[in-house]
Amino acid sequence: MAGEAARSFRATVQYDGTAYYGFQRQRRGPDREGVSIQQELEEALARLAGHPVRVTGAGRTDTGVHALGQVVGFTIEWPKGRGDAALLRALNSSLPPDIAISALSEAPPGFHPRFDARRRTYEYRLLNAPVRQPLLRQRAWHVAATLDEARMNAAAALLVGVHDFATFGRPPAGDNTVREVYSAEWRGGGETDDGRMLVFRICANAFLFRMVRSLVGSLRKVGDGSWSVDDFADALSARDRQRSAAAAPAHGLYLIAVEYDTQATQSPD
Q: Which of 40, 59, 158, 224 registers the highest number of CB atoms within 10 A of its CB?
């Protein structure tokens, strides 16, 4: 593709994070130890372009975290005449089976997947059942104790609005731990064999490191009666990382969607 003008793209990526050390590029060890989602995407693009291609992501998901709506950006020499759908097919044919591009389009000038994002939505899936279910072991957190969904929702409602979430995470840069949460709710995810799936969905302008997992770990304490709703409120207002319960495991967490302003989602003519 030498001589072709470089074009910028945005793509929506789905992945099963079980085998990866998170989204962000890691140091490469023997036998591909430390391989990340970003590395796999960059290697697939390099095979198409014939030279290194840098990928930027909207969210730095942790080791073992999954995604249905990660958004990435990259620049590559790809002629318009070949069509964007052909680029999507070529990328998917070069990616491993646990990563897929679900949508791809030309990006507007100056688009940045992380800094232009206005809302991010995560889900956490929790299997509330007396006995673990092996087929869900990398998809949901198994909690045997009976959980009170209404109590957990009463606590989750306290998260909506602008708050300092220092108790539940640390900032990716600087020291600002204030975030705005637009919605936070537990809901049933359907019955399973001898149990039920509970899904925590939270949407915010941005998140701290470990914020969703720390919130879920603390809300679980409310659900099993170890904490009262007031205990949860006190932990939130304390702005003290030591007041959070242990974070829920990574394998129950999913990045569902990243939203942008209308002008940031439109492709140039």
A: 59
Would the pLDDT of 263 be above 50?
A: no
CA distance 123 to 67: 10
Residue-level pLDDT at 189 = 78
Q: Find the mean pLDDT for residues 216-238.
A: 98
Given 16, 62, 116, 234, which residue is catalytic?
A: 62
Active site residue 193: no
Q: For 101-155, how does the pLDDT look when each residue is reduced to its tens digit (9 = 90+)?
A: 999 999 998 999 999 999 999 999 999 999 999 999 999 999 999 999 999 999 9
Classified as helix, coil or strand, 213 is helix
